[in-house]
Amino acid sequence: FNPVTTINYDLPEPGRVYIIIYNILGKQVRTLVNGHQDAGYRSIQWNGTSDNGRRAAAGMYIYLIQAGDFIQSHKMTLLK
After folding, report:
1. Which pLDDT tens digits describe the chain residue by residue (80 residues)?
2. Which domain holds residue 55?
């Protein structure tokens, strides 16, 4: 993606949701969601910046979605 990617997800029930971006080495880069959300289809964008506001380096990233007992991860590639 360049410069923004959209992450879509569907919550079958309300609950606490975490969406966290990690680099390929497993270091946490950005927390996109950390809070309670109602059930339903949602989307959030990541513009390739870290939690401290710096542009992330080009390369492979993994986003992790956790909601209750549900955990899912996907790979994405940041292009420059």
Report:
1. 889 999 999 998 999 999 999 999 999 999 999 999 999 999 999 999 999 999 999 999 999 999 988 999 999 999 98
2. 5-78
How far is the C-alpha of 11 from the C-alpha of 70, rounded, in Å? 10
How many angstroms separate the CA atoms of 2 and 42, rounded?
21
Stated pTM of the model? 0.92
Strands of 59-67's sheet in order across: 28-37, 15-23, 59-67, 70-78
Q: How many domains does the chain have?
A: 1
